[in-house]
Amino acid sequence: MKRNKMKTLYLLLITALGVSVLSSCADYLESDQYFKDRMTLDKAFSSKQYSEEWLAHAYSDLRDENADVASKGYTPHCFADDMYYGDRDANYDISNASALSYNEFHTGMYSENEKQGSWLQSYRGIRNATTFIHNIDINEEMTLEEIADYKAQARFVRAYYYWLLLRKYGPIPLLPDEGIDYTDSYDEVATPRSTYEECAEYIASEMLLAAQDLQVSRDRLAIARPTRGAALATRAKVLLYAASPLMNGNTDDYAMELVDDEGNQLLSTTYDEEKWARAAAAARDVMELGVYELYTASFRETGNSSYPPTIVPPYDAEFSDKNWPEGWKNIDPFESYRSVFNGTAGAENPELIFTRGDNGGENGQAMVAHQLPRVANGWNTQGLTQKQVDAYYMNDGTDAPGKDKEIGRGDGSDRVSGYVTQDDVDNGLYKPLREGVSLQYANREPRFYASVAYNGSVWHLENEPDSWNKEQQVFYYRGDGNGYTNTMFWLRTGIGVMKFVHPRDTYRDGQIGRIVPKLEPAIRYADILLMYAEALNELTGSYNIPSWDGSTTYAISRDVNEMKKGIRPVRIRGGVPDYPAEVYASQDEFRKTVKRERQVELMGEGQRYYDLRRWKDAPVEESLPIYGCNVLMTSDQRDLFHTPVAEWALQSTFSRKMWFWPIRHSELKRNKRLTQNPGWTYND
User: Fold this and answer.
1) Strand-pair category, 352-354 with 523-524
2) pLDDT of 316-344, one tens digit each?
3) Which of 78, 272, 330, 377 could link 323 by a cystine bridge, Cβ 3.0 to 4.6 Å?
């Protein structure tokens, strides 16, 4: 009886919080479809099969709008000032929430009722996970070890839903774990928003509890199940966000206006440096597990066009003669980075900390379909901005000539002129560029070539049914089959996205199965390493922080050698040298470089949108005009094509309401204690 009451209590509480269950309980209580009101919770959780099915449903809401990396049809948050989509910029239908255009998204011209599936999904998942946690102990068909692991999985899932809500909406209501009295009215059980700090601390503590019983590793068939590292890594991300400027010592007008129903401020106005130390220690907890490492591919002396011989970076006395992880002598930086995302590394990837595996359905493949050019039947609409292209380094670690010139941040240099000739190709110059490619794209770092589909890049298309259509050099000049047209199938900047694309990928005949499946990189080790370096850089004092299990205590300070543990492996794997000593010596300079490193390393992984906000950089970075190639130019006007212009088809601005996503009007009406994010309406 007690367990049945608990089930009712959570249903009532979530209803009061604004989850839309009144119109269709069947839609909300997904787990209950297995029981159809004919089975008590006691009977359900006495069965191992039904218990596993219930846990599976707790997982099921991590997809679609709750995905970390997905097509813009589910979440546009993988797109910021670095990456855009262009196939929804005409005939925008505000009644169709799935049709949010990039311009509407990037300028805040969306309503309080758009892209709100994550609120419903998350609280539904929280409810299902909580019911599981409170009932699984009665199961007698499972071992105590299985019960502990399953309960830890449910605890992770519940905390991860809270993390997704916190990241998107800011401070949110936390459900009381003990339940409530079901005889109370909805108004009496209405729950206010907790502070950001309270939310972060709750999620962090729940992830610690989960980590105690989660397995250290999973086999490939259980790759989407969380491990101890996944719990500790999520904890590190939550603590890093809580330490960041938007949430830590924020005294601007927005922070003053973001309050609960009693006027209590929800963002911390008092700066606490120790939050950075705790974030650094949490990242180090993941590092000290000894489970994860950056993925690397071996050096290749011979190859073919799709898997070319290793292009060796320019000689560097510190890294060229040393094997990984001290140098890049025996690895292929290009293939090492490319393989993490395009489906090659697979479930054995030691860099992958948390992924939804195949549970995301065709999200990853659909994303690639929008990147592929028309010659492969792709949508040819997802591209990169000139700012993102300029963020990549030259192959010797220096800035590209003319970097950021158009947005007023240049160093006085001009962009490189000229084009690759056939003689250059025959003489092995400017690899991997082909004839006719602008020298602006020559001699760039390996991650550039693994990520950027520049004008004249080669799409291998090994899975094309016709041999003549394989190995296509694609140009984006007007009049070219992949350039500007009067349809939606063209790149607004004339720069595409190669990241996530496998040499065998093609969308011929609209067959998604011709695209190699991708494992979503929700959390990977490179992110943890960069987080560690970032957090250490913000410290001026020293802090003693216990490890996650209390087995040791870390001495945390701005130690350059420790910062290098975070940044150097990422740089070396990418085939670029470490920063000079003067960068490490300056807190401001290192902050700039680590932000840029995240922009490059994590491009397209759903990080940039949120990074710009937590750093409080969004008002500047997202308001700058978006530059790209002059796509109205033909191949006869190629110099003009490669002269960056402000893209008329892409808009950019940032308003104060865009710090956090709005809360749906219907949720505000159901929960009288729920407050709206500043700048958005209540629709009273």
Assistant:
1) antiparallel
2) 999 999 999 999 999 999 999 999 999 99
3) 330
Specify if 475 maps to a domain: yes
Residue 537 lies in a domain: no
Distance, in Å, from the CA atom of 575 to the CA atom of 46, rounded to the nearest integer, reads 54
Q: Find the domain containing 128 and state its range.
A: 1-80+111-194+659-675
Please report the beta strands in 416-479, taking only residues with DSSP state E, as ranges in sequence order: 452-453, 457-459, 472-474
In a 3-state reduction of DSSP, which class is residue 18? Answer: coil
**Strand partners of residue 546:** 553
CA distance 214 to 145: 10
Distances (CA, A) of 328 to 195, 287, 321, 391, 418: 46, 21, 8, 22, 31
Q: How far is CA 540 from CA 272, 535, 554, in A?
A: 12, 11, 16
pLDDT, tens only, 656-683: 999 999 999 999 998 999 999 999 999 8
Q: What is the largest CA-CA distance in the chain?
A: 83
Tokens of 302: 């011979």
How many CB atoms are closer than 10 A to CB 498? Answer: 20
Query: Residue 363: is it exposed, middle or buried by C-beta count within 10 angstroms (0-12/13-18/19+)?
Result: buried
Residue 224 contacts by C-beta under 8 Å, 6 or more apart in sequence?
59, 355, 356, 357, 358, 359
Q: Give the pLDDT confidence of 271-306 residue by residue, as tens digits.
A: 999 999 999 999 999 999 999 999 999 999 999 999
Q: Measure the CA–CA gap between 610 and 613, rounded to whole angstroms.
A: 5
Q: Are residues 144 and 171 in the same domain?
A: yes
Query: Tokens representing 4?
Result: 């049945």
CATH code, domain with 185: 1.25.40
Phi and psi angles of residue 627, each rounded to the nearest 5 degrees, phi first: -105, 155
Using alpha carbons, select from 399, 392, 397 the residue that is nearest to residue 413: 399
Contact predicate 129/154, CB 8 Å: yes
Report the phi/psi class of residue 520: left, alpha or beta, with left for phi > 0 and alpha for psi in -120 to 50: beta
Cis preceding-peptide flag for 432 (omega within 30 of 0): yes
- Report if residue 40 sits inside a domain: yes
Tokens (6 digits) for 598: 């995240």
From 353, 292, 229, 313, select the one nearest 571 (Cα to Cα). Answer: 313
Nearest to 403 by CA among 392, 557, 395: 392
Q: Hey, is 497 helix, strand or coil?
A: strand
CA gap 497, 517 in Å, rounded: 17
Q: How many domains does the chain have?
A: 2
d(CA 264, CA 86): 41
Instruction: Based on the fold, state whether residues 33 and 8 are members of the same structural domain.
Output: yes
Residue 64 and residue 70 in contact, taking contact as beta carbons nearer than 8 Å = yes
More confidently predicted of 360 and 175? 175
**Alpha carbons 78 and 573: distance in angstroms, whole number:** 24
Residue 463 falls inside a structural domain = yes
Residues 146 and 173 in one domain: yes
Both structure tokens of 633? 């130019």
Strands 553-556 and 496-497, sheet pairing: unpaired
Residue 610, phi then psi, degrees to nearest 5:
-80, -35
Cα–Cα dist 573/367, whole Å = 25
